[in-house]
Structure formats: structure tokens, C-alpha cells
Specification:
642 residues; 21 strands; Killer Toxin P4, Chain A; 4 domains
Amino acid sequence: MYFFCNNGNYTNGSTYSQNVNTTLSSLTANASLTGFFTTSVGASDTVYGLVQCRPDVPLNNCRACVNTAAEGITRFCPNQKEAMIGYNNCLLRYSDLRFFSMSSNAPVASFYNTGTVNDANANVFNTQLANLLRNISISASSNASKFSVGTIGYSQFSDIYGMVQCTRDLSENDCLSCLQAIIGFIPQCCDQKQGARIYAMSCGLRFELYAFFSTSTPPISDIQPPPSVSPADPSLSPGGTVNTNTSGGKTSTSKTMVIVIVSMAAVSLTVIVVVGCCYFWRKAKKNAAEIQDDYERTMESLLIGLDTLKSATENFSDENKLGQGGFGPVYKGKLIDGREIAVKRLSSNSGQGLEELKTEVLLVAKLLHRNLVKLLGFCLEEEEKLLVYEYLPNGSLDKILFDQRKRFRLDWERRYKIIVGIARGLLYLHEDSQLRIIHRDLKASNILLDEQMNPKISDFGLAKLFGESQTQGNTNRIAGTYGYMAPEYAKNGYFSTKSDVYSFGVLVLEIVTGQKNSSFCNSVNLQSHAWLHWTSGTAEELIDPVLADPWPRSEAFKCVHIGLLCVQETAADRPSMSDIISMLSGHSVTAPVPTRPAFFVTSRHFTVDTANDSGFGLDLSQSVDSIQRSVNEVTISELYPR
């Protein structure tokens, strides 16, 4: 059981109290009819109620669960104006606010199996679990029941069993968004657990290594075979006789039968094709209409009035200004319900038109992950173009990492947590979300930090959407931030997941060293600086000196190694984000030797053999053995010249 109580108290005997009692009676009376029911009670002090059972449980179990829930909700949330209670088989909710068709994605409760997955199998388990939950989430969101179960292979002897459910009042998009949000919560609550349950107000999920749900299929005896035509049917031969051909050839009657049957089959096939085409044309037309309706509902649900945002930001006062981005200023605001928000006010010369903004809104609204900034809404009034995001109190990473006083707040544990969080957010964008997204502007100022210093990727103004099979795109309009741009994008406009990986590599090196990639003089950039130290065996000099000893050297050197792998010149040589997650998660990883980074430049502090085409660019007077020793301490890889 789990429950949630909110919105203050009501008085016993009041109109609202009477409406709550009527609502609960109505919900319990109607729940077992279809397993789902909503109601609103009262012309004043209205109470809105919803009840829902799992569709795979018998109706008598549904009825029993709802009766228990109606009694429990008044016991655990006495006199609360808003409450929800849930059990294995049902949930019941009421509120003084109309919540129907509105998704509430924030996790309310989570439970986990005490058993854990073996470290050696963790990557396979996480990958298969993500695939399973993605597939059944898509299925549930499109089902009328908003419910789906499934299994997926995990090991030779084990499967993973999964179940997801949304409340049936949600649209397909809202259901999917809710499920994606709580799936993104798994690493935080239940990492490497053999089973878990996570519930939000509007959806829930469960997974285990054993079957915990019931499914049914029609018994074999109930599946009737199609009627067959008897070859002895008298109507197929004149006079009902069969004339045998004594010469050994086929009978004329047999020929007639073949011609008749083939003709009938041809006619039947034609009818089937025509009917099928009509069916699928109508279905496609209906789906297109549903998609358009869903689009309009999504846009409408995200609209926020200009007056509301002016009031929240004190008319966009300078005192509330958080900073200035590439597309315009950002203001802090507070809504009437107490929620703090960040409002991005796109300038008229931002280069982002109305359709592009709508596309971005729909895109970001579908991307729900704990390491991505959540979009709350937008406004298009009086020539204003405003995007409303959740407010994150610690601001952007660059404001802390590169500040001489604030950087001391970033100990190694927090820096490593930030690197892993950014990696997980990018992995979601590239591989785990419904849509494959290329961010194109990943940098320290676009990483925001919440109150626990968890990182969230922000600013999707330059993001590009890829189809399922698309791996690369190109553009004539190069936009982004120099220093973070991959060479193939900066030079030729080619972008892919590997161009985001390049930006990630630069960002990792900044986090480890505490230095901006643009802060170097004498034409040396951060990538070259890091690579030269790495190959010369002085990687320890790269680590930010403000980090207090003892800091984990192997972990820090591993991050330098990953950063250098990401900034290699050839995109194909760079690791994928799933590879990077594996490297960050493992205690000892065999990874390739990084080749010389893109935009490689040197300074007088290092001797570089320009004639050497091995890709190292290091002083060959230094022995290979000394290089191997410095790298072997990291337990990542062996370094040999090529």
C-alpha cells in the first residue's frame, strides 16, 4: 500500500466532507463494472474522484480492493482535500481540483526487492530492463486499458517480467510521458535491484525476475478451424459423378475443380485486398486525426498565459534575471501555487521561429528523464515567445566550476556524480527515448544543477531529431559553441550522436581539470593540454588542484581517459554513450588507447615529434615503458604506439 495526502484540511460535516463521502460511495459502487470510473460531486466545493483496477485481476478482486481503498483513504488521509491510495490491484484518488486527463509524473512511492543483480550481469540486466519497459510503455500508452505486461530474456535461466499502467483518462502522449518519467527514476531508487515498484499519481510500473501478473489466451479448443471445401462436393462435377481417365491422365472433372477453385481464390483474394486497403486507409486517416488531436491537446495543456508569467517574474524584472543565454534572457519566477520556475524569454532576433518553437516544445515535453530539465509550458502572446522550465536552485555548472570560490563546493564525489548524470542523460537522448535526439550544444553553461547537485541537460534550441535508422545529418547553418564542436560539424556541418560525444569529452575534461576549454593561452587548447600530459605520464598534473587529498586517482584518471577517447578526430573512433556508461560503471575497464585529439596544438612546454605518424605526437626520447607505467596505474588499458 502507498498513499498521498495534500491541499490542507476540510471540516467534518461541511459540504466538502459530504461530497467526499458521496464520491467514495460512487467510486466503490461503479468500480467493478468496468474496472475504471470517474465522477465529480457537488455544485459547490466540488470533489473529483477516480478509481481504477488492474485489468488482469477478476472483478470480484477489484471490488474487494476498492472497498479496502475507500476505507483506507479516510484513515490514512483524514480530512485531506486531496488524497490518493494505491494497492497491488487498484488505486483510488479524489481532489478539490479537476485532475482528469492531466498527467502527474512525480514519483509518490517506490519499493524494491532486496535482492541485487550481480555486478557482472548489471549491464545486460539494465539494457534488457530498459528495452522491456520501453516496449510495454509504448504498448500501454496506445491501449484503451492503458495497461501492458511483458517479458524479456535476461540470462540462460531467468527472464525479466514487467508491468506498466496509466490511469485511463490520460492521452497516449501523457501516459507515455508519465511512464518515461518514472522509468527515469529507477537508477535513483532501485539501481541493480532484482525487482521494484514505482508509483506516480497517474501511472506505475513494476518489474521482477518472476511472474507476478496473470495473462490469458483463448484455449486451443475454442479456436475453430475455417470451414473447408470437400473434394467430393457434388456441385463441382456434372451429374454428381466422377469420370476416371483410364489413360492415366487427370480427369476432366479434376480440371474443372481446379479452375473453379483457382477462380474462387482469385476473386476472394481480390476482395480481401480491396477490403484490406479500405480498412488500412480508414485506419491511417483515423490515426492521422488522432495524432492531430493529440498534438492539439498536448499544445493546449502546455500553454501558460502571459499575465501569469508576468506576475510570476514581476514583469520580467532585472532582480529576477538569472542570466543571458544565446537565445535570450532567463528569469526566475514563482507561480501562484508556489512552484518556482525559470522562464526563457526568446529575443526577436534569436533565429527561432514560431513553428520551430512549437516543435521544440513538443520535443522536450516528450523527453522525461531525471538528467534532463523538465519543460513545464510555453507562451505565445503579444509577440512574446516564452519557454517555462523547472527552476533549479544551483544554476548552471559553469557558474560553480569556474568560480574561484564556489568551485570548492565540487568535491570529487560530486564531480563524478555530475559526469555520470550527464552521460545518462545523453544516453537517454541517443538510445533510450522514443526519439533519437542530437543536442548539438552540450557545454557547461547548459548543465543545470538541482538542490542535490544532480545535473540536468538544458537548452534544446539547437537539438535535432533523427529517425530510427538515421545515424547522421548535415546542415549549412553551423550553430553551437566553438571549443565544444566536433571537427566534422565545425568544418562540414555533419552532426551525429558522436558529435555530442565529442562535446561530452570536452565537458568531462573541464570538470576534472576545473579549467575552461577557452582559458588556455599560447594557442594550446584543453584537449591538447590533457593529451600531452596523459601521454607523457604526468596525468596527475591535470587534476583540479582545489580537490583535497585523498581523491581516487584511478577514478579521476579513468575520466581523463574517457574524455580523451571522446575528443578523437575521427568520429568512428569515439565511444558511444552506452560504452561510456559501461566504462564509468566498471571498476576496471579495458578501453582503447586514445589517439591524438582533433584541433591538436602544442606549446613550447612539450617536445612533439611531428614526423611521427603514430598519432601520439609525444617526445620519443621518453621510453615507452615509462608511459606504460603511468597508465597502468589507472587500470584502464595498456598503451602501445601504433
